[in-house]
Amino acid sequence: MTLNTHPLASATSWLFVPASRPERIAKALASGADAVIVDLEDAVAPQDKEGARAALLGAFGQLQAAERARVLVRINAHGTPWFDGDLQALAQLVAQGGAGVVLPKAETAEAMALLLPALGTQGVLVPIIESVAGLHAIDAMARAPRVLRLAFGHLDFQVDAGMACAEDESELLPVRLAVVLAARRAQLPAPIDGVTVNTQDSAVVQADAARALRGGFGGKLSIHPMQVAPINAAFAPTDAQLQRAQQVLAAAEAAQGGVCVVDGRMVDAPVIALAHKTLQRHQQAQRRLQSDA
User: Fold this and answer.
1) How many whole angstroms separate alpha carbon 137 and alpha carbon 41?
2) pTM of whole model > 0.70?
3) CB atoms within 10 A of CB 162
4) Mean pLDDT, residues 50-58
5) Backbone φ/ψ region at 125: left (φ over 0), alpha (ψ -120 to 50), beta
6) Across residues 15-30, what is the average pLDDT?
7) Is the distance from CB of 74 to CB of 99 less than 8 angstroms?
8) Cβ–Cβ under 8 Å, residues 158 and 165
9) d(Cα 183, Cα 192) in Å, to the nearest integer?
10) What residues form DSSP beta bridges with 30?
């Protein structure tokens, strides 16, 4: 399996669960999320790190193979006292079929290279861009070995950059675009946008996910099972969008490569490419429904 064909290359919903609450892993896997990230970093207090790591290893052994393939672990950042121990646990998880690792506060390709022995030839790496230094080094990190996709940690980025964003986070639009463009330059799948802190209002979550889609992201991180369905809904095309895409592709096929018109609008190569992407998003949604059935 190449990285481009990895199942999580097209995953849209990524749900965090604390490693200190291993009983929640199975529930997270049943939530409809495409990927589950078991968190050893922010969700676990310093005094609980070692216990959480042991709990994760124990719970992981109870999962089915297909479930293990959807699980990643967010380790503690390079330079922390827990990094080396997390790498040892990561190697065990990948050897048992775990998908790979999410690296917080990623800032250098050199630090990411330290993960490679634990990942082997099967594990994948998702670095989170959470600082100005990380954004500065983003091209090198995007092209590093075993990188599946980039993720954007907008909350930490704001703190590091000294920003105080409004509710719509319009101040972060240039940064989000920079992450999207870096992924494209490295020929990676569309990156993963950051979390929504509101865990009560699904409309807010869906609006944030729709903004991510419009901005070129291909997925979104989440911190509560309630957020999964709105994220999946936002990234799936509407019936009208699907119908439009099917009409465009049918007209293009009938035109045999020539320019054509659908509902008074010209259909050329970019419009056709967008229609194909719409169908791909629909197929992703259908696969999720079938797996949940």
Assistant:
1) 22
2) yes
3) 7
4) 95
5) beta
6) 96
7) no
8) yes
9) 10
10) none
